[in-house]
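Summary for the steering committee. One of the milestones for this cycle was to obtain a three-dimensional model of the protein with zinc ion bound, which we needed before selecting residues for the alanine scan. The sequence and ligand used are listed below.
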Amino acid sequence: MATELLSVDDAVNIIRRDYFDNVQRVADDLRSRMESDEITTRDDLYEALTESIDSHQRVIYTFQAKLGMLVTDNAEAMEDETGETGTIEQQMFFAMQADVRAQLERDGFDLNEPFTCAECKKTFDERDIARACCG
Ligand SMILES: [Zn+2]
């Protein structure tokens, strides 16, 4: 018998799930690099985020960028941040960074002060300062 066709909504949901799976992986990778002391300052975190996205297949490959731009929560990120429209890959670069930042926030990180004192839960922009807080 005839195969049941997916609706467009179903197809978009699959693309969305695939894209946000990529976003979650980048966020998880940054988080584990903070936990393993590879990233110890807010500046390091933002640099690592930029590098991760800059080399990501979503940004490198035009087709992947098109799919990502279809489902991102931050399609206007490049125009908002730079005032320019750019190529689809450039738009994806800004949009995916914004999506990863949003994911980290949903995961409980204050991106301005991503390091937390284990004792009093106060947040800081550097790991060493957070560790010295109640220590
Ligand atoms: Zn403290």
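Key point for the committee: DSSP finds seven helices and two strands in the chain.
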